[in-house]
Every structure is written in C-alpha cells, then in structure tokens.
Design goal:
With 296 residues, the chain is an alpha/beta fold. The protein is built from twelve helices and nine strands. Helix 1 packs across helix 2, helix 2 packs antiparallel against helix 4 and helix 6 crosses helix 7. The longest helix has 15 residues.
C-alpha cells in the first residue's frame, strides 16, 4: 500500500480503500471502507468525518490492511467483524450461520404483532441459525416461551451465545435436529421459519460473498428452491394448536409457488401475505383451523 515512512490519515485510507474496493468489485466501496476503518479505530462512522486529518497509528494501519485484504477476497464484512445488527440488536455471526438480513425483520414483526395474544404463547423457530428470530421476538414478547431448532450443532452454538448476550437463554429451548423431530409431541401457537430457498439454477449466480462463505445448507432449497417448504407446511399441521399460525419467509418471485404447496393442506389456509419495502411478497401467514380444542 505504501512505504513504512508514510503517515496515513483517515481520509487517505478511505480514499485509497474506496478505489481498491471498486477495482475488486466490492460495493458499496466507500461504505465498506468506512465500516472497516471505524471498527479498527473503535469509533462510530460519523467520527471518521470529524477526524479526517487524524493519523492512523502503525498497529491500527496493519490491522486495517489485513481486513481490507479479507474483504477484497469477498469475505462478508459481517463475518470479518463477527457481528451484525438485526432488529436494532447486535448478533454474533460466523460462517456457521446465515447472515441475518433486513427482509427477515418483516417475519419477526409479523410474528410479534400476532403473538401478543395469548401472552404466554408457545413459539417455535425452525432453522434458527444465529437465533436472530426467536431472540429478537422474545425481546418484545416477555411472557412467551420459545423453542428453536437447527440441524447444525455449530449454528446452535452461535445461537446460544447470542441468547446469553441478550439475557434470553432461560426463555429459549435450543434443540438439535431436523425440522420438527426435536419437538415431537409438542404443539405451538406460532411456528416461524426462514427456510433455505435458493434453487440449483440460481446457485452459481449468487454473489461470491454468499456462495463462497455462507453455509450452503442454510441457503440451498433443492432443484426449485422449495424443497424445505414442501416438508415444513404439511408437518406444521400436527404441531400447531387450533387457530395457530405458521409464518414463512418467502423467496422473491416464488410466493405463488409456495401458496400452491399450502393449498394442498387440509388444515392450513392463507391468512395474509406481507410485502417488503420493495413491494415484494416476503412473508406468508397460514392459519390453522380454529377447532374447539383447548390449549394445552
């Protein structure tokens, strides 16, 4: 980058890194540079703008250079920093878990708005990954009880650590296994899931940040991307209490295909589809028949 004698200011580093990232097709280049430099300098991004002339010490410069090399290889910034913000909460992430995305916040918001009654709702999250869905929902539903299942032990380790960090470990049961296997015999008021939904034909078109670093089992949904939906929806019928709800995050452009799967259900019917801020159908809510059976 430069000789050892040169002193690099904050502005120098931001300008150089922006140009370097643009050549490497890392976008948005300036924002990525700011996030990494703020992390190294242990400050807020706004402080970079009030300290453009600040000379970056040699040890911090070396650390920054290491991080920009990692990012230039398309390793996601969230994995480099080991954290991500979701629902205004900070979550630990690593390559064992999918990086929580803003689209999934619509799923959490839909769950929270419906799960205030009953106050002591029993809620299941299928494929919990980092634990972002049950933890962020639990923060807003203080009397609800949560179960979170994942087929990956490594992912569950991350989820448990996040629950500890947010003082939710006593309210969430983290269980290892495939889909509903670990909760056999239980029934729930709400079931939520963000299933894998990348199809085989879409895989090679994914950005390298996703394709090469995020866990494939959390992304790949079979030939058409809907394999896990075909498993979850029929099974959910026996795990939902009367009047319960199944909330599913939807892959862009495939909402109708998921509805078609749901239409084969004998007990679940579509209640609502929620669109995201780009007007994409993002969350499908299926309601169980309100039979006259008391809650357990």
């Amino acid at each position: 980058m430069a000789s050892q004698q040169r002193q690099w200011t904050v502005l120098d580093l931001l300008n150089w890194t922006r140009q370097f990232f643009e050549k490497k097709q890392i976008t948005p280049a300036r924002l990525e540079a700011e996030v990494l430099l703020a992390h190294v300098l242990e400050c807020e991004r706004i402080e970079l703008y009030t300290g453009f002339d600040r000379v970056v010490p040699a040890d911090k410069l070396a650390e920054f250079k290491r991080l920009i090399v990692e990012r230039s290889q398309h390793r996601p910034t969230q994995y480099i920093l080991g954290r991500v913000e979701f629902m205004s909460m900070e979550f630990i992430v690593n390559e064992a878990v999918l990086i929580p995305r803003p689209e999934t916040e619509h799923l959490v918001e839909a769950l929270v708005s419906r799960a205030r009654e009953p106050a002591d709702a029993k809620i299941l999250d299928i494929g919990t990954g980092s634990g972002c869905i049950p933890i962020s929902a639990a923060a807003q539903l203080p009397q609800a009880e949560f179960w979170a299942v994942d087929v990956s032990e490594q992912a569950l380790a991350v989820a448990r650590e996040n629950a500890q960090r947010h003082n939710m470990a006593e309210r969430i049961h983290f269980l290892h296994g495939d889909l509903f296997e670990p909760v056999a015999g239980l029934v729930f008021d709400f079931i939520a899931s963000n299933p894998p939904y990348v199809s085989e034909s879409e895989w090679d078109e994914l950005p390298p940040e996703v394709r090469d670093y995020e866990p494939r089992p959390a992304l790949a949904g079979g030939p058409d991307g809907l394999e896990v939906y075909r498993r979850i929806i029929p099974l959910a019928e026996e795990f939902l209490l009367p009047g319960g709800r199944l909330l599913l995050e939807l892959p862009a452009g495939k909402a109708q295909a998921v509805r078609a799967i749901a239409e084969e259900s004998t007990r679940l019917c579509e209640e609502e589809t929620i669109r995201d801020y780009q007007d994409i159908e993002r969350v499908l809510i299926l309601a169980a028949a309100p039979e006259d059976i008391p809650r357990a």
